[in-house]
Amino acid sequence: MNNKFSTLVAATCAALMATTAIARADAMEDLVKAAQAEGELTTIALPHDWCGYGAVIEGFKAKYGLKVNELNPDAGSGDEIEAIKANKDNKGPQAPDVIDVGLSFGPSAKADGLIQSYKVATWDSIPDSAKDADGYWYGDYYGVMSFEVNKDLVKESPKDWADLLKPEYANMVALAGDPRTANQAISGIFAAGLSAAGGDVSKAGQAGLDFFKELNAKGNFVPVVGKSAPLAQGTTPIVLRWDYNALADRDTLKGNPPIDVVVPASGVVAGVYVQAISAYAPHPNAAKLWMEYLYSDEGQLGWLKGYCHPIRFNDLAKNGKIPQDLLDKLPPAEGYAKAVFPTLDEQNAYKAVITKGWDSVGVEVK
To answer: Which residue, 16, 42, 106, 228, is the most exposed by fewest CB within 10 angstroms?
Structure first.
C-alpha cells in the first residue's frame, strides 16, 4: 500500500511539473509573439563596455529579432528616473521601456509610481534580499568600487583611499560620473568616506565629502567624468569605478595603455544594481521579454562575461552552469572578502548626504 501510495504521489508530482512546464512554455511563446508585434525596445544608460552589455544587447536582438533603441548610454541612475518622468505621455523612441539603476533608486521609483510589477520565470532563484516582494524591481548584478589606473602615467598604483591624497597623484583622480545623479560616483564618495571613518557607515557620507574636498584642495581631483577614453588619453589617469568596468577596459584597451585594477585595502563597497520596467513603457511586452532574457542562464552568463557578478551567480554555480573558462577570468576572491553591502536605509541616508552636500566640495563634475 505504501509503495502504491508513493508511486501515485510521484506520478502526480511529475504530472504537475510537466503541466507547469507546458504552461510556462506557452506563456513564453505568447510573450515572444506580443513583443515581436511591438517590434522594438527602448533602453537607457547601457554603455556597451558596462557589464558586457554590448554583447548582451546583440544577443537579445539576434534571438528575438527586435530593434533596440539605445538612449544616452552614459546617463546616471537619476537621469534614467527623470527620463521616465519626462516621457510619461510620450510613446516615441525617447521614452525608456526599462531601466538599470542603483539599488536605492528601485524603492523610490516604486513609491513614485514610475515602475510596474513583473516577475520573471527564474524569480525564485533571485535572493529575497535583492528583490521587491511584489516584483517592481529586482537585483541584476553587483561589483565593488576599485581604482582603475593608467600604468603608463602612474608608476606606483595607490593601494588605499588615503594614498590618493599623496602629491604624486596631482591632477590624476576622477569620479566616473556626476555625484549629484550617478550612483557609481555616489558610491565612490561613500567608499572613500567609509575608509576615512574607520568603517562607520553612519558617518561615511559626510566623511566622503570631506575627503573629496581635501582631494580637490590638494589639486589631485580632476572634475571630468572618468571613463576609458580620458583614462587612456591621460586626462584622468586614475578613475574610481566599479571593478567590472575597469576590468572590461583592461581587456578592451589591450595594453595600450596597460591598466591596473586595484581593490582598495579598506572601504571596499559592493554595489547592487536593479532592473525595472517603466510604468509608462511604450513597449511593455518587449520590456518583459528583455527581463526574461536578462534573468535566463544565457543573460546572466552574458553579464558574467563582462565581469559583473550576476544576481543568480550562486544558483548557476550550484547547478554547474558556469563554464570554467569564465570562472578562471574572475578577479581573485581575497579583495572581495572585505566588501560591505549597504542596506537600503543606509544607502538612502548617505545618498541624501552626498547629493545634497556635493556643492560644498566646490567643484562641478562635467
So the answer is: 16
